[in-house]
């Protein structure tokens, strides 16, 4: 596998902090959403362990375009790309130990343009992977989202046992409702068929593999710094959220998969980044571009595809009890993004 100097340093740092070698050694993984940010980061982590620790993990990477092999993959890597939606047929005679279901639409514009497709892809893809889990007796983990908590508005940490209301008549709701439905299916396959399943609810992920053109405010802040422009905020900036670094998210996913309990759900975020969007922008600008400022051009929420006003902090008590914690702070996340995007 070909890695940049920065990637190699980051995977070295994380694999020293989180030792999954015994859980990975000689195991077979199916990873959906393999071309996405999180799926590709998980694959690189496993391949890095193969090359650095001789773990001999075998990876089947599900993607819509299996004929397009990523540039970082080498012929000696123990990985095979298979077509999304055909996993059951392609793996018919192959034992699978772990299924990491990361496939999902992720772009807000897609949610708005294709609400029916957003919902159905999430539901149908999850059901297909759970059927494979059932047939293979594999351990399964669903990558869900903080959005299942809905328009929460509280400073108190939200635990995994709490639920959130989501407007089923809002076109933007296809994604969170799809994730809620996927969680129900995952829980049901565990309860009804005894499948070895887990769920992780992940906050917004930032850093390392986030595409430059991604539209979220966290990326726009970086673009403002690099392009020397002020931030135009379409809201009052009072929504309060947290984010998590890409490899902190991956370490949390793998911790839940290898150390979590069957049937359980785990929040994954960095509580240290919990702040309003205005505070978030001001903080990052103060680190890297104090001359930048915020310009307000407020647009009604129903015309933007943004979620309603919210304040949501996930409790990480359950995942922390498994020995996990985030190790990359806000400043380091943006140092990494600014470095890789400025090249």
Written description of the protein model:
This protein has twelve helices and 15 strands. Helix 3 (about 35-55) links the parallel strand 1 and strand 2 (about 60-65). About 40% of the residues lie in helices and about 20% in strands.
Count of individual beta strands:
15
Distance between the termini: 21 Å
Order of helices and strands, N to C?
Answer: HHEHEEHEHHEEHEEHEEEHEEHEEHH
| Rg over alpha carbons | 20 Å
Oligomer: single chain
The major pleated sheet works out as: 7 strands, parallel
The secondary-structure class comes to alpha/beta
Query: Per the principal axes of the C-alpha atoms, what is the gross shape?
Result: globular
In what range is the share of β-strand residues? 15-25%
Please work out how many helical segments DSSP would assign: 12
Given as residue ranges, the uncertain stretches (5+ residues, pLDDT < 50) are: none
Tag the structure with descriptive keywords.
343 residues; alpha/beta; 7-stranded parallel sheet; two-stranded parallel sheet; 15 strands
